[in-house]
Amino acid sequence: MKTRKSILIIVVLAFSLLGIQAQHTPVMPRPLKKGDRIAVISPSSSPTEKTVKEGCEILRQWGYVPVVGPHAMNEYHGFAGTADERAADLRWALTDSTISAIMCTRGGDGAVQLLTRISPSDFRRQPKWLIGFSDITALHSAMVQAGVMSIHGSMLHAISSQNGTDSVSVMLHNILEGTLPTYYLEHNALDQPGCAEGLLVGGNFSVLCGLAGSPYDCLLRREPLILFIEDTDEEMTKVDRMLHHLEVRGVLQRLKGIIVGHFTDYKRPKNDFEDMNEMLHSYLRELDIPVCYGFPVGHKRPNLPLIEGCRVRLNVSNAGTSLTFLMP
Fold it and tell me: Is the model's pTM score more than 0.70?
């Protein structure tokens, strides 16, 4: 018996040293209702006063009560306050029982600085929706690893610029209130047909790759995964490198499906590839899995809200693509 206990302790210690944590199946936060309080925080770069003011007004029009974090408007070398200040706002939003959801003001840089300042138990104690994209990918990945779903979607600037009434804002509002979407896309000539189910993870490709091998890396999860990627202002050669980073880690070979979103404002090197999608296709076509190109997610409109950590069904065919979110 003592020998078995010793072996168990050694295994646990080994997994801890490798940064591998106990895997929690992601839970879906409860739907919001009128009058619920939404924390407005800035985990990354500093927002403008106009963004926060107008975005909060849209949340009020949706029937919610926005509560701006103590440091959400701070300015510190481009960040919305020091890492400790931003982490304090996130911890408050996660642990305050009167807060029902968390809306990020904007992306930018700096969300990764918060990860070592937040305990995974802070995410799990009171599961609640966190909404954002771009640099907020770091928080999405950490939340999925901790066992809580989150929403990769429009932040305050986007919903206010569209008055909160455009189709994407309506979809986000519907998800917050408990309606899971199914998206349909027209066929893309580069699409690879197939049907797969798995946990949806992903976001900004460079931010995601920056978490590689850490306890916050959602690509370490052992379930079947469907990955979505997007990015902006990244050279084609750098995206090539990131893709092969997934390959050498063995991640690419484990994926059940891939969704290629918007890649914007990138520099095209002197090669024969027409665009980013063609470059990605030259490698991904070797995989025997469904791959969808041109999915509307990322740094241009439309940016469809996606539920990270939710089980989805991806169906790619010559008739088009469907992405269905499945109830847990």
Answer: yes
| SS3 state of residue 74 | coil
- Using DSSP's 3-state secondary structure scheme, residue 155 falls into coil
Q: Is there a contact between 156 and 103 (Cβ–Cβ < 8 Å)?
A: yes
For 275, how many CA atoms within 13 A lie in the half-sphere containing its CB? 9
Where is 263: in which H helix or E strand? strand 257-264
- Residue-wise DSSP of 161-212: HTTTTSHHHHHHHHHHTTPPPEEEE---TT-B-EEEEEEEEEEEHHHHHTTT
DSSP 8-class letter at 113: G
Distances (CA, A) of 124 to 22, 43, 85, 140: 13, 18, 21, 13
Q: Would you say the C-alpha torsion 130, 136, 140, 146 has a positive or negative sign?
A: negative
Query: What is the enclosing helix (H) or strand (E) of 8?
Result: helix 2-17
φ and ψ at residue 68, rounded to 5 degrees:
-75, 130
What pLDDT shows up at residue 162? 84
For residue 249, the Cα-to-chain-centroid distance in whole angstroms is 20
Q: Are 132 and 110 in contact (CB under 8 A)?
A: no
Mean pLDDT of all residues in the chain? 92
Rg from Cα positions in the chain: 20
* 122-143 residue pLDDT tens: 999 999 999 999 999 999 999 9
CA distances from 68 to 57, 75, 103, 201, 230 (A): 12, 15, 10, 28, 29
Q: Kindly report the CA angle at 102 between 96 and 106, in degrees rounded to 5?
A: 135
Q: DSSP assignment of 291-307, as one string?
A: EEES-S-SSSS----EE
3-state secondary structure of 107: coil
